[in-house]
Amino acid sequence: MSLIYRLGRPALFRFEPERAHALSIGALKRGLVRNMDIPVDGRLHVNVAGIAFPNPLGLAAGYDKNAEVPDEALRLGFGFVEVGTLTPRPQEGNPRPRLFRLPKEKAVINRMGFNNEGHADAAERLAARVRKPGIVGVNIGANKDSADRVADYVEGVNVFESFASYLTINISSPNTPGLRAFQSGSELDRLLKAVIAARNGYAAMMGTPRKPVFVKVAPDLTEDQIEEIAEAAAKRKVDGLIVSNTTISRDGIESHPLAKEAGGLSGRPLMRRSTWVLARFRRAVGPDFPLIGVGGVEDARTAIIKIEAGADLVQLYSGLVFDGPHLPVRILKGMLRVLDIGDIDRISDLRDSRVDDILAGPKPD
Question: Which of 186, 176, 213 minimizes the C-alpha distance to 197?
Fold first, then answer.
């Protein structure tokens, strides 16, 4: 944590969490976060799903829900930024309070419920930056009251394919009733078939390359569900999986007064569970299928553990809440130190090196 953020965090944490989040977005918009000393090093380059990433560290969806500050976020050092989750129509999400900090545990509980301004406003903002450099993915979801949620995802593909570097299909938020039903069985296959057909159809019509489609899954999956998702993703030619979203488990915070709050848990307590599921997905999908690891990343060590567990790329969000805007640069510099010490040619050389060890350890309850 930088000295400035260490001094300023107590004041920021006096604000209700959603208000503090809005202030951080405002600070980025106004240029109040100074330019970072971002390391540029070929050893951090990663090619995934046809995209050349300058480094493997990304900002997860949930921070910039409405695509207000993707370029400003990229200037923090992220190799890519994912905006959203975006739904066709604007929605307010669940009633407040719906976001809770657990500072000692470096954890967050949220039940936001896909609060966002809808496709139209975000599409307008993304269209305005279409010629700017930087990798910006778009995370799409379905409205809570939608009569046809598959159609909502298809609409998201059609709206954002021309602006997005890649698209993420979010079927794993615990805060939209029934959404996680898309993670198994015929519902999963029906959704993936429709989304990939929409992506392919759009690209054919416009004569443009197909944009990668990733699917974001939960950490609360059984081994049978992991196998089922892996098979469905291969069958429908999905371009990658993002592992994982927040968890409904309360492992690590059972005695905390906020543990009974409904919603998804993220941050440090999610690290072990999400990393085990990531390694299990790597075993299920094999060595050639792209995986993005998310959950509990707070420093170079945890980011590298994700890569060793099978991740090609890594995302974070909650870590920013507790460690501030200098975190991405510190992680990248830490990665380079690990490469220097180990005389390792590329960060991708570490991928999968601990899959077997992680799966041989304790399985999350």
Answer: 213
- pTM beyond cutoff 0.85: yes
| Residue 189: Cβ-neighbour burial (10 angstroms; 0-12, 13-18, 19+) | middle
The one catalytic residue in 24, 146, 172, 173 is 173
CA distances from 147 to 86, 133, 150 (A): 17, 37, 9
pLDDT tens digits along 170-216: 999 999 999 999 998 899 999 999 999 999 999 999 999 999 999 99
The span from the CA of 261 to the CA of 151, in Å, is 32
Tokens representing 224 are 């049978």
DSSP letters of 288-315? Answer: TS-EEEESS--SHHHHHHHHHTT-SEEE
Distance in angstroms (rounded) separating the CA atoms of residues 295 and 210: 28
With tokens 């000295």, the residue in question is 3
- Look at residues 150, 146, 164, 241 and name the one whose alpha carbon lies nearest to residue 202: 164
Residue 318 designated active-site: no
Let me know how long the chain is: 365
Q: Report the first-to-last Cα separation within the chain, whole angstroms.
A: 32
Q: Which amino acid type is present at position 124? A: E
Q: Assign 3-state DSSP to the chain and report helix, strand, coil percentages, each to 5.
A: 45, 15, 40
Residues facing residue 80 across a β-bridge: 58
Instruction: Outline where DSSP puts E strands in 128-245.
Output: 136-140, 166-170, 213-217, 240-243
Between CA 255 and CA 112, with CA 19 as vertex, the angle to 5 degrees is: 60
Range 3-360 has CATH code 3.40.50.2000: no
99-157: per-residue pLDDT in tens?
999 999 999 999 999 999 999 999 999 999 988 999 999 999 999 999 999 999 999 99
